[in-house]
């Protein structure tokens, strides 16, 4: 039996078809309105759109691969549809192999941008898939692996991206390290340093290097987190860095506003990515991941792709210094 939601959509589709026939014989603007209406037929109930907990316990060594997760995350591979919102723009996305970075990379390419991605060498299998997806859109896909904890590498990464893309208009500081630890005494100085270097220093180094190239109209986007506002007891070092990303977004928006460069952030809630299965969450938390949100499930990276597009889109020209939340109804902002 068809789901009641499907039935409702079928009636809408019939209505849309009738309107289209009428419009075709009257005015062109009415035909346009009808085609806009027909888009509503892709409406889906967000509570049942994607897998819900309980999830299988699963663990991978850091940094993990999206391709080895069960269920496999959705980054919009088969669903994201572009409409030319970023035509001709050039983007560098860190952590572009998997998770939110991969969803942004796919969406940017489908919106007409050329995209360079950075990732760790161990993530080559995920990265290869992303480059193939970008190239399938007829866009340039540039793979630039390397460790962001190194200042010289960050500078080289930006220069290599600029050389390969012919310039830079969008920088997405998205790479992140999250390793849960029950007690402060479980966080070694080495681990603390790795989290700070990956999540804060790299953002600083990359932005500084990118500013030599970004022109008015460019956009910088940070992936921060609900952890910036509402930190968990076992993510102390990580949450510090996400608060730093949120704060950096706001100070840099003020500094760069007069130069015409916009700076915004995305604050995801629980999203189904390798970060969570490679030390980011306990198995206890992973099994019920996302169950405490009003939508009753974790988000999928694909569900955030349009936010990354919106923040990069020159049409969002008055949005700067903002943090856009996507937390399934819980968390802040
Ligand atoms: P992910 O594992 O897919 O992405 C993180 C990426 O960071 C990795 O793919 C890796 O390429 C990169 N990375 C880590 N250390 C690196 C290093 N030293 N050098 C170069 N690259 C490195 O997971 P994700 O969840 O999509 O993470 C993307 C961003 O989203 C992170 O900043 C994370 O803090 C943030 N975030 C995630 C969640 C969530 O629930 N998944 C929630 C809020 C915020
Ligand atoms: Mg990855």
From TrEMBL:
<dbReference type="InterPro" id="IPR006311">
    <property type="entry name" value="TAT_signal"/>
</dbReference>
<dbReference type="InterPro" id="IPR002347">
    <property type="entry name" value="SDR_fam"/>
</dbReference>
<dbReference type="InterPro" id="IPR036291">
    <property type="entry name" value="NAD(P)-bd_dom_sf"/>
</dbReference>
<keyword id="KW-0560">Oxidoreductase</keyword>
<feature type="signal peptide">
    <location>
        <begin position="1"/>
        <end position="33"/>
    </location>
</feature>
<keyword id="KW-0732">Signal</keyword>
<dbReference type="GO" id="GO:0016614">
    <property type="term" value="F:oxidoreductase activity, acting on CH-OH group of donors"/>
</dbReference>
<dbReference type="Pfam" id="PF13561">
    <property type="entry name" value="adh_short_C2"/>
</dbReference>
<dbReference type="InterPro" id="IPR020904">
    <property type="entry name" value="Sc_DH/Rdtase_CS"/>
</dbReference>
<comment type="similarity">
    <text>Belongs to the short-chain dehydrogenases/reductases (SDR) family.</text>
</comment>
<protein>
    <recommendedName>
        <fullName>Uncharacterized oxidoreductase YghA</fullName>
    </recommendedName>
</protein>
């Amino acid at each position: 039996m068809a789901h009641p939601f499907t039935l409702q959509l079928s009636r809408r589709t019939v209505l849309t078809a009738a309107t289209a026939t009428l419009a075709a014989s009257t005015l062109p603007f009415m035909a346009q309105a009808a085609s806009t209406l027909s888009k509503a037929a892709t409406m889906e109930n967000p509570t049942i759109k994607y897998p819900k907990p309980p999830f299988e316990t699963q663990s991978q060594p850091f940094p993990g691969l999206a391709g080895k997760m069960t269920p496999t995350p959705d980054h919009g591979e088969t669903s994201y549809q572009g409409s030319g919102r970023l035509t001709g723009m050039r983007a560098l996305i860190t952590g572009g192999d998997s998770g939110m970075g991969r969803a942004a990379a796919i969406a940017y390419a489908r919106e007409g941008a050329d995209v360079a991605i950075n990732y760790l060498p161990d993530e080559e299998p995920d990265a290869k898939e992303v480059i193939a997806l970008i190239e399938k859109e007829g866009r340039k896909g540039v793979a630039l692996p390397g460790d962001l904890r190194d200042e010289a590498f960050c500078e080289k990464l930006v220069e290599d991206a600029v050389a390969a893309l012919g310039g830079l208009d969008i920088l997405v500081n998205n790479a992140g390290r999250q390793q849960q630890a029950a007690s402060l005494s479980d966080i070694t100085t080495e681990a603390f340093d790795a989290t700070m270097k990956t999540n804060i220093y790299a953002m600083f180094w990359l932005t500084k290097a990118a500013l030599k190239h970004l022109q008015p109209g460019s956009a910088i986007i940070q992936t921060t987190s609900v952890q910036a506002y509402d930190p968990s007891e076992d993510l102390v070092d990580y949450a510090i860095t996400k608060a730093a990303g949120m704060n950096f977004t706001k100070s840099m928006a003020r500094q760069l506003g007069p130069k015409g460069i916009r700076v915004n952030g995305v604050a995801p809630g629980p999203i189904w990515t390798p970060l969570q299965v490679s030390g980011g969450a306990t198995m206890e938390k992973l099994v019920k991941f996302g169950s405490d949100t009003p939508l009753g499930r974790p988000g999928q990276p694909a569900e955030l792709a349009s936010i990354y597009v919106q923040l990069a889109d020159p049409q969002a020209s008055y949005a700067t210094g903002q943090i856009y939340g996507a937390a399934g109804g819980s968390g802040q902002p």
